[in-house]
Amino acid sequence: MLFDFAETSARNRYKLLISTIVPRPIAWAVTQDARGVVNAAPFSFFNALSSNPPVLGLSIGGADVEEDKDTLANIKATGQFVVCLVPERAAHAMTVTAIDLPPHVDELAEAGLTPVPSRMVKPPRIAESPVAFECETHQLVPLGGNTLVLGRILAMHIDDDCMLDAEKCYVDTPKLGLIGRMHGGGGYLRAREDLNIPRIPLAEWEARHKG
């Protein structure tokens, strides 16, 4: 089945993308407005994009959004945000923060999540998240109905008990207990099972195919 995106509605393009590009990492973006009011919202249009400089990307918006979401408005106003990965143990709390609550409502309080002061930016991180990235705005890229927020990572927090060797930066990734976004309104995936396929060195590949 071929879908010509020039002839496919924005809504249907969205449905096709989220049903096929899976699993996607999911994370909270925690921001503050100019008055210090905290906002937290989950996003799955998110990923790491560069390690040097350390940059992650967060796409905010949608085809039917007429004004900036609180997250984007706060990032534009302050240039700071914290991205917190979502573990399975906080999955239900994450769905509470996805509710379209009024701007003055504290999503963290509504969801029973715990704010923890950050070290290098004003917005807090979430204690229940095993991994958090303190970010400042690197670039904002307009994408029609969405805005791609490129955030330069200033600092990263990882729970102590999820480190195998801090000096070597070895992380016990399965112990993070993270979830990924799947298809449908409530589809998620536990990141528990590994499919371990080692990379093949060029010399080994050439040795296999000599002659």
From TrEMBL:
It holds the Pfam family Flavin_Reduct. The keyword Flavoprotein applies. The keyword Flavoprotein applies. InterPro entries: Flavin_Rdtase-like_dom, Split_barrel_FMN-bd. Keywords: Flavoprotein, FMN. SMART domains: Flavin_Reduct (SM00903). Its cofactor is FMN. Residues 19-172 form the Flavin reductase like domain. Belongs to the flavoredoxin family. This is Flavin reductase family protein. It comes from Roseomonas marmotae.
